[in-house]
């Protein structure tokens, strides 16, 4: 893990989106090192469960720096949030409001609005988000239950491929503020969710440009609102590389099939859930030769364990190391135990300059 990359990503965020405080989506990668570094830089945290809240707070993070961003919370998790003082939380339905009223009546609730991107790897609106036309009914229920509605949130979808989805969603959320005002609410939060790309593409810069343009145009409607977001893969994707070895080679008429010592049941869950295919690189670049049609399989006996079905690779040998880039998001956290899958060791690196930035803001950096 390159911890310097994480520091650079945080600086990149504050440079390009200075008005919006990031709340890191812990579900993406719950490494203690990631949480510690981001906390030392001033990041907040988006937690989706009691376990994530416990982990984050065990590192000294204040309850005020956490949003419980799960519109469907188990009762026991809700009670735990009340116990430790995590008041800020999302919801998207009347039934969730009724549950919150019963078990955490002094919570600060944020209505999650559905505002899907036209194209995203995972369109979360299928599962979460109140339809804008139903918001009045939900807001009215919050008022009837005397709950403290403090803002709106949305999530355009994981792996958003439509930069224009963000300004559109912001305007949808802002259009509902007068409705909240009608019921006596003076909102203080606008949470613009996640979906920001984590790779080296220019996508983030286009998204941030459009968001900033929108905020400038809608400035008069933002008065009194604290802006926040829930980036996950943006922070950690490029900070990790995975080194694996070739454990099997089979040549067919049309291609060479390589088997490596990882799997879709290990760190390559993204193949199943997001159709993200990663091409390996030779660690020993001196051995590069003619590229051949190839496939890469995982080590389990599942017929579904195909990491890359069609790619061009040079001749590889048994025991040779190959490296996969951009492995920091939704990899380690989705590891299963199928057929003996286990987490690989993680080795950390950081530059002196980045270490000085991190260490001056965290009292326990020697244990990262």
UniProtKB/TrEMBL annotation:
> What is the main EC category here?
lyase
Recorded GO CC terms: cytoplasm
Q: Which InterPro entries match?
A: Ala_racemase/Decarboxylase_C, De-COase2_CS, De-COase2_N, De-COase2_pyr-phos_BS, Orn/DAP/Arg_de-COase, Orn_de-COase, PLP-binding_barrel
Q: Which reaction does it catalyse?
A: L-ornithine + H(+) = putrescine + CO2
SUPFAM superfamilies from the UniProt entry:
Alanine racemase C-terminal domain-like (SSF50621), PLP-binding barrel (SSF51419)
Q: How does it assemble?
A: Homodimer. Only the dimer is catalytically active, as the active sites are constructed of residues from both monomers.
Which family is this protein grouped under? Belongs to the Orn/Lys/Arg decarboxylase class-II family.
Q: What is the protein name given in its UniProt record?
A: ornithine decarboxylase
Originating species: Rhynocoris fuscipes
